[in-house]
Design a protein that fits this description.
399 residues; alpha/beta; Aspartate Aminotransferase, domain 1; Aspartate Aminotransferase, domain 2; 2 domains; 7-stranded mixed β-sheet; 3-stranded antiparallel β-sheet; 13 helices; 13% strand; binds pyridoxal-5'-phosphate
Length: 399
């Protein structure tokens, strides 16, 4: 008689992973792509990704580098020429002096967060973030056993920007270890006023907190540009990327600007966590600084899309956050649905338009909101808004 084999139990995933929530925008993208595979004509307004291709100059630079066949590791902190080029851009764009030594090349800004958070904070650290905000902050902090301290922003909270006063009030209740600001913001597009950014920097200095500034949407503004935190807070940690303005999401390349004291600790972390950022992406990124004409044409397209989307939303009586920059409209849909998850699900199923539910960005009040991305083509924006009008007029939504 044969004895059935004993199958040893599979070890369980760590409890840490259970604290990391799914990214609903990615889940919506999968659902929308599955529908498209079945032949549905889907308008993608869910994902924060430029529809324009990588500009010509970076493509050419990467092709030339690839032809050499020499594609190896680089220094853990990045190619010196790229670090220098980025440092120079701070003088050109903001009149701020940055030493190339302070610039660290990372695997997208996502890789930069890991390095910055690990270098700046201990386990259990408490970091203030605007809510709604970019969901990965909370997820990375959870994975690293750090805590997100939500600072609610919005029409009902005196404005869409996080203020020094609101942060000070929270830190009086229980001390903080850091503040993470993001301007322009995802999902609201709000650009922080330079004086408010300076006030937050001053508060951080006074209380000995790290200020981390996510500047990934810099370059994408439709009025006054965003200012860098480094202009008033030279010891801020700045996180940036080639993903958005430079249309290079898939190259997975970004950078940090950090105070001198963090350079060596981050180098030690980067050596072991990543060894280096992909060589070809670094070569392409350096050439992206020579592609500004092409990139400004892309930005002009977003500006046209923004007008189409904001005008249509206003005509439909839907309120949005200011959308000063980035490529998002964060919309209050509570008049039409008690739960924006359900609203988004039905909008996709019945009208074929994919948008992102607000719960991705705000676990408290996100059920009232949805995010529309206007990073796609003009046709997508026009058709998406036409379908929204019909959907609101014909679907039996909340009475
Ligand atoms: C505010 C913000 N920061 C960071 C990222 C991550 O970008 P990446 O890792 O591609 O640089 C995103 C992506 O959508 C974002 O919206």
């Amino acid at each position: 008689m044969s004895v059935p084999p004993v199958i040893p139990p599979v070890p369980a995933p760590s409890r840490r992973t259970a604290r990391v929530a799914p990214f609903l925008a990615m889940d919506v993208l999968s659902a929308a792509r599955a529908k498209a595979r079945q032949g549905a004509d889907i308008m993608h307004m869910e994902i924060g990704q430029p529809s324009a291709p990588t500009p010509r100059r970076p493509l050419e630079a990467a092709r030339a580098a690839m032809a050499s066949g020499q594609i190896g590791y680089t220094e853990a902190l990045g190619l010196p020429s790229l670090r220098e080029r980025i440092a120079r851009s701070y003088q050109d764009l903001y009149g701020v002096s940055v030493d190339a030594e302070q610039v660290i090349i990372t695997t997208g800004s996502s890789g930069g967060f890991m390095l910055a958070f690990l270098a700046a904070f201990e386990t259990g650290a408490r970091i203030a973030c605007a809510c709604p905000g970019y969901p990965a902050y909370r997820n990375i902090f959870n994975a690293l056993e750090m805590e997100t301290v939500d600072i609610p922003v919005g029409a009902a909270n005196g404005g869409w920007s996080m203020t020094a006063a609101a942060i000070a009030a929270v830190s009086r209740l229980r001390p903080l270890d850091g503040v993470l600001v993001m301007s322009p913001s995802n999902p609201t597009g709000v650009i922080a006023r330079p004086d408010e950014l300076a006030a937050i920097g001053a508060l951080c200095r006074e209380q000995g907190l790290w200020l981390i500034s996510d500047e990934i949407y810099h370059g994408l503004h439709y009025g006054a540009p965003a200012s860098t935190a480094l202009a008033t807070t030279p010891d801020a940690i700045v996180v940036n990327s080639f993903s958005k303005y430079y249309c290079m999401t898939g190259w997975r390349i970004g950078w940090l600007v950090v105070p001198q004291a963090l350079v060596r600790p981050i180098e030690r972390l980067a050596q072991s966590l990543f060894i280096s950022t992909p060589f070809l992406s670094q070569v392409a990124a350096e050439a992206a600084f020579d592609a500004i004409d092409e990139l400004e044409a892309v930005r002009a397209g977003y500006a046209r899309n923004r007008d189409i989307v904001l005008n249509a939303l206003a005509d439909l009586g839907l309120e949005t956050a200011p959308a000063d920059g980035a490529f998002y409209a964060y919309v209050d849909v509570s008049r039409h649905a008690a739960d924006s998850m359900e609203f988004c699900r039905r909008f996709l199923d019945e009208a074929g338009v994919a948008i992102t539910p607000g719960l991705d960005f705000d676990p408290h009040r996100g059920a009232h909101f949805a995010r529309f991305s206007f990073a796609g083509s003009q046709e997508t924006c026009v058709e998406g808004m036409a379908r929204l009008k019909t959907f609101l007029a014909t679907a039996s939504l909340r009475a």
